[in-house]
Design goal:
By secondary structure, this protein is α/β, with parallel strands linked by helices. The chain folds into 3 domains: 6-195, Class I glutamine amidotransferase (GATase) domain (Rossmann fold, 3-Layer(aba) Sandwich); 204-392, HUPs (Rossmann fold), CATH 3.40.50; 406-506, GMP Synthetase, Chain A, domain 3, CATH 3.30.300. The chain is built from 14 helices and 18 strands. The strands form 3 sheets. A 9-stranded mixed β-sheet has the order 2-1-3-4-9-8-7-5-6, sandwiched between helices. Strands 12-11-10-13-14 form a 5-stranded parallel β-sheet, sandwiched between helices. Strand 3, helix 2 (73-77) and strand 4 (82-85) form a beta-alpha-beta unit. Helix 5 packs across helix 6. The longest helix has 20 residues, at 298-317.
Length: 519
């Protein structure tokens, strides 16, 4: 039996929220072991005495419709504290006789929460009886059930926090797990330690040991090839594999032609010379560009790139005997946006080349050791594996590369223009000591030409979009507030040094409602 199965833990019942894994991440940050289970598998928990609390996640379903999911009676049989979040808050209220209705106004984004009474769940949560929280709902708890009291409200959610202190049942309409809820972690800690009284038994150092053990048990005497991009995720996977299977690992780095400027040279240097990994370099830029010719649809782009990746990996794998596994750096945010990993009714946002882009039939078995982790956890894991700081702090880069930063048709000319613009932008961030303050930044080339004037002559060239966001986990994000001076300098440098661009715009959309990447 896995050691963690014997530890005290918190169970998160997944009703399909895009934020479910964030709850698990926040709990792990607090040093507590947690597991996510599908809402249909509650009966398996009845005899597990290590469970100290239950959290009911949010979800895309609405309680006011017939297709909603009710609270399973087996959860109540555990006789342990329950915290319902958003949809979980509503089904908890309805279970005990509360009334749910569709609100006249939706709440998506920040809302001011007003304290109405005291509770263990909100100790030290409010400042001067108010705080800012992140809402994402239309249904509201209109009438609270018997035995519960109202603890807090917002303009649109009069019963935004309800509690039954005797039963230790707690419901919150907002999302304490997202970074944009002020003091959200305090509320989660209150539930863990003041209410559930669970012990701190979880660490990333232990997770590293578990991952290495798991890889060894899967691979055994076979060989593994690792899909190397040079980013943080694939770098950490490569080092994990090296520790787990040693010389059985061969890394394959495919230059798709959709990489950032000079990236192929940096990757070969870092992994062949610095990290001493067995590396096969494949320049497939011409074939990728050929396959993507005249393709507009972003999902089709991802599918083409994913399929070609696998074809090339399998081709080069044949040259190495006894290769049965393909490892890649898929993270949980990749999975949650592509499909629901627990079988709950999560909404699919887009496929990732690491996920939805893979063909259904492969000759290689897939290993994705990081698919339950977030980027910040991967960086911490990389630190445990002694990955260099310059690699650890690199901004995320999508598997499909520049293909999803060029909406519409992809051409060699567009790729070259974008490489230069992105190079200028990232260099300006480094020169201004802003790079490490930003989660992810990039330039994109919009399929839009506009009229400009240069040297008293009319120009008709592309529009460059800049995007820079702050985030803790990639699941929610806010735009970075650059100064006017920075905007002026970077815009001038891009227009003056990159032929083909005469206009620069900045994306100020948060996630949600947008995603970080354009496609």
């Amino acid at each position: 039996m896995n050691k963690e199965k014997l530890l005290e833990k918190i169970i998160i019942v997944d009703y399909g929220s895009q934020f479910t894994q964030l709850i698990a991440r926040k709990i792990r940050e607090c040093g507590v072991y947690s597991e996510i289970i599908n809402f249909q598998k509650i009966k398996n928990l009845i005899n597990d005495k290590t469970i100290k609390g239950i959290i009911l996640s949010g979800g895309p379903l609405t309680i006011t419709k017939k297709k909603s999911v009710a609270l399973n009676n087996n959860i109540l049989k555990l006789n342990i504290p329950i915290l319902g979040i958003c949809y979980g808050h509503q089904i908890l209220a309805k279970k005990f006789g509360g009334k749910i209705k569709i609100s006249n106004e939706r709440e998506f984004g920040h809302a001011i929460l007003q304290s109405n009474s005291k509770s263990l769940i909100t100790k030290n949560f409010f400042k001067k009886n108010k705080t800012l929280v992140w809402m994402s709902h239309q249904d509201i708890v209109h009438k609270i059930p018997g035995g519960f009291k109202k603890v807090a409200s917002s303009n649109n959610s009069k019963n935004a926090i309800i509690v039954n202190e005797k039963k230790k049942y707690y419901g919150v309409q907002f999302h304490p797990e997202v970074s944009h809820t002020h003091n959200g972690k305090i509320l989660i800690k209150n539930f863990l330690f003041r209410i559930c009284k669970v012990k701190k038994t979880w660490s990333l150092k232990n997770q590293k040991k578990n991952l290495i053990t798991d890889i060894r048990s899967k691979v055994k005497n076979n060989k593994v090839i690792c899909a190397l991009s040079g980013g943080v995720d694939s770098s950490v996977v490569a080092l994990l594999l090296k520790k787990a299977v040693g010389n059985k690992l061969t890394c394959i780095f495919i230059n798709t032609g959709l990489l950032r400027k000079n990236e192929e040279h940096e990757v070969v240097h870092n992994f062949k010379k610095r990290l001493k990994l067995k590396l096969i370099y494949v320049d497939a830029s011409s074939i990728f560009l050929s396959r993507l010719k005249n393709i507009n649809n972003p999902e089709t782009k991802r599918k083409i790139i994913g399929k070609l990746f696998i074809q090339l990996f399998e081709k080069y794998a044949k040259k190495i005997k006894n290769v049965k596994f393909l490892a890649q750096g898929t993270l949980y945010p990749d999975l949650i946006e592509s499909k629901t990993v627990t079988g709950s009714p999560s909404s699919k946002i887009k496929s990732h080349h690491n996920v939805g882009g893979l063909p259904k039939k492969m000759n290689l078995k897939l290993i994705e050791p990081l698919n339950s982790l977030f980027k910040d956890e991967v960086r911490k894991l990389g630190k445990e594996l002694s990955l260099s700081k310059d690699l650890l702090l690199r901004h995320p880069f999508p598997g499909p590369g520049l293909a999803i930063r060029i909406p519409g048709k992809i051409t060699k000319e567009k790729i070259n223009i974008l490489k230069e613009a992105d190079y200028v932008f990232i260099n300006e961030l480094r020169n201004s000591n802003l790079y490490n303050n930003i989660w992810q930044a990039y330039a994109a080339l919009l399929p839009l030409k506009t009229v400009g004037v240069m040297g008293d002559k009319r120009t008709y060239e592309y529009t460059c979009l800049l995007r820079a966001v702050t985030s803790e986990d990639g699941m929610t994000a806010d735009f970075f507030p650059f100064s006017k001076k920075f905007f002026q300098e970077v815009s001038n440098k891009i227009i003056n040094s990159v032929s083909g661009i005469n206009r620069v715009v900045y994306d100020i959309t948060t996630k949600p409602p947008s995603t970080i990447e354009l496609e």
